[in-house]
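Homework help thread (please don't just give me the answer)

Our assignment gives two proteins as sequence + structure token strings and asks us to describe the second one. The first is just a warm-up. Here they are:
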Amino acid sequence: MREYRLGFIGASRRRKFDVPPFLHAWNRVLTQGFKFFIHPEAQLYRLQDSSGRVILVIGDVLVAHGGRTLDENLLAIASGDRESLDDLTGRFTVVVLDGDEGQVMNDPLGSQAVFRTLGESPVFSSHASLIADCMDLGVSRRIKKYMASDEYRARVTRFLPGDLTLYDDVVHLIPNNELDLRSGESTRYWPRESVASSSFEDLLSVWDEYFRAYVEYIEPRYVPVIGLTGGLDSRAVIATVHSMSLRAQYLTWDKMPVEEAARIPVLAEHLGGGHSWVRMDERPTGDEIDEIRQAAKSATGLTRGTPLLPAQIAQVTGSRSLFFKGLGGEVMRGPFNSRIKSNLPSDDVETLGYALYAGTVRRSAGAEYESTTRSAISGYLERANYGADLHGLDPGDLIYWEQRMGTWTAIQHAEFSVVLNSHSAMNSRRIFSTAWGLPDAERFGPGLLQRLIEHYDPEFARI
């Protein structure tokens, strides 16, 4: 059952697609207007309101902010209130169905990927390759050639530009946008207002509320696994949840500078609990390893080769493990913010998006690479509704959040899900908007997360 583990596929009942044999072992959900196949290990929460609308939540969802219950938030979402989405976190997809009408939304960072076909009555799924399997789609020669280009291969962090996949007419649903299941159009629902000025104390309050709710959710359900590195993002998460008495298992990749690796045993001793090294040069073999690698290849939409990391992680984790990835901190700190990238254009969003994606490669890029990349960025900006009122938010902040986090990290989660569930640790619009309201001197740079680490665990901060 590793194939597209924790995944789903859905469409109008009138929309026909092939049902591969493995889907017969999945849970089937039918409503008046829609059909779904959902992996048997995926969490499924179903609710119906007084008007007959059906709300499906696929994946882990919890209330991180405010005083309303999950049901109260979901019923508000079904009635059209999108502010309630800001109080939820986890890794999930929300589908609201009303007869033949429907809308799809995902968690703030889009860590639960949603892919969809372009055009009316879209097929939508957790995995691009699952759509391809069900609709007999071949890999795009154009995109495959793009990935083989010198410019793409020069990237340190490889992910396709905009919302592209390796399949023509299958794209990501970008975070902060919802998909209409009749028209196939997407609509932006966030931001709804300008960011208000804030202080570090405001951020600390929202951060603390969020993580206390998360710890309460995780403890009875999972064995949390957190990456232990010298990186500030993961260390801020570790300091916070450790101070809240969450016992976690820690993993460290050995692919790091020697001086950083030397600090890991001291950090692990301070934290207590289990700690394991994942040796990147060890290549486990066998039929199960091959199965994991092939499943991970499909899970990532054929964009990351035949991954070995899930098989390596499987050697040191268990069936109840949840990898709590230190993702989201960069959204707070704004590495794409135009005030940091003052040499880049801010009035031409397409050129900004191209510059942020291509980086220094653009200075020597060939015409074909630039043309394909710009076309992808243009389509992404249109489908992600950058022409809507952004209420004064910096487009660079949104592009980092919605393109990089909403596509690249979503694929990472899909890769890990073959062997264990995973969440983005800092996954809250309320945290992000509060951080964005800080004075520049407080927000930008490493000092912001360092202050959080020092607040929760001064000793850990000194190591």
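The one we have to describe:
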Amino acid sequence: MKTASKYINFILIIAMLFSCSEDKITLSGTGSITGKVVSNGDNVPLEFTRVSTNPNSSIVFTDASGNFVISNVPVGSYSVEAQKDGYLSKFEPATVTADNSVNVIFELDIETANNDAPNAPVLESPINDAIDQEVTVDLVWTGSDPEDDTLTYEVQILNDQNADVLTYTDLTEVTLTVSGLDYGTKYFWQVSASDNINDPVISETFNFKTSDFPNNRNFFTRKINGNNVIYSADDDGNEYQLTLESTNSWRPRKASNINKIAFLRSNGGQTHIYTMDLDGSNVVQVTNSVAVNGFNLEELDFEWKNNNTKLVYPSFDKLYQINTNGSGLSQIHQTLNGNFITEVDWNQSTLRLAVKTNNAVGYNVEIYTMNTSGTILDYILQGVNGAAGGLDYTFDGTKLLYTYDVSGNENNEYRQLDSHMFIYDIAAMTAMDISTSKPAGTNDLDSRFSPNEAEIIFVNTSNDGVSQQDLVKLSLASLNDRIIFIENAKMPDWK
């Protein structure tokens, strides 16, 4: 029994010794893991990146240089992970040996590295090669993204007339309304889409052409933000702005045979005559050394002369003519009584001028006709109290349209109380009142014949001197037939 017991004890001791020997081999040493974390592509060090291992050891963070050290890592094989907000996590293998350091380099991709670019926008409207488009147009396209990322768009528009580029950025809708385009111009447009991750993707290029400028026959002036602005209008009353609100431009007068508009414009404290095309382009100053002037700049009028090769205009008590290119300035008349010349009209059929004069405050009115030499032929209005104006010959020159305040009122504010329109028959020397249907308390002013002389266009407004002015049409076949044509408008011309 004692011998058996000794053998059993010996075996147990040997087993314990072997067991202890295995533990020492497993825990026989440690090493370290060092490394660097940078962004992929530009190698910028990534600070505060979390670095950990699997199996677990210590968790550390990179310094400002992107470096890290994990110390006292037991010997073995590990998967090392680098994690940072905004970047894709990455794993690298590492084998740690006793008393050694293993180095691991991480190149992290940004979080969106696998994001796909947007699809190219598809242009829908106007269709490619569209014609006769309005100068205000809706550009329409579709856009999409593979990951349904939120998209923003940029639209660029070029034209075939100049190097101007219209650019609209940070658009979130797929429709853009563009206004203020030029008539008769071809435009090219394209759209780029951005998901703010990838490079923008550009659509194909479409083109469209705007319609030609309408051949309007009605012109007028409207005051906007303190400045007079000139418009044209078609027969339905659709309006087209011709001059900018930043300039003071008024009194449009069309020359039909050369498709030009002459008008007055403020320039450095003076008033001069300018011309422009029917669409408001090609503005040219005509007068220079002698400005247009008189008792009230808004009452002053001028006219085309000699088949629209010259312009005739007033400057205080003198009447001048000038070629449309600014040459040939000459004085053709001076008043006999020192009155200022305020309005003038020319008739090509009779080669006669009609002139309205008044004193420095607008009264002591005279309306008379004269020949090209400046000789007075007929007095149409003379020796009356009150204001007058609105001269316009018929085509054959046998009649003259004018306005006159039949109240005879004269005051410091130049307020008219009851202005009527009259058609004067030059041969019969009689005047017919055509304002018989004028509403009480209003004035009919600034009258012009229609091109066929079947109607009159004029301003009607309250006699308070401050209310809105409207353009009204009156049929000469029925003097009761008054139609408001354009609201908030003055100084009409109808050619």
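TA reply:
I won't write it for you, but here's a hint about the kind of observation we're looking for: The helical segments are 2-26.
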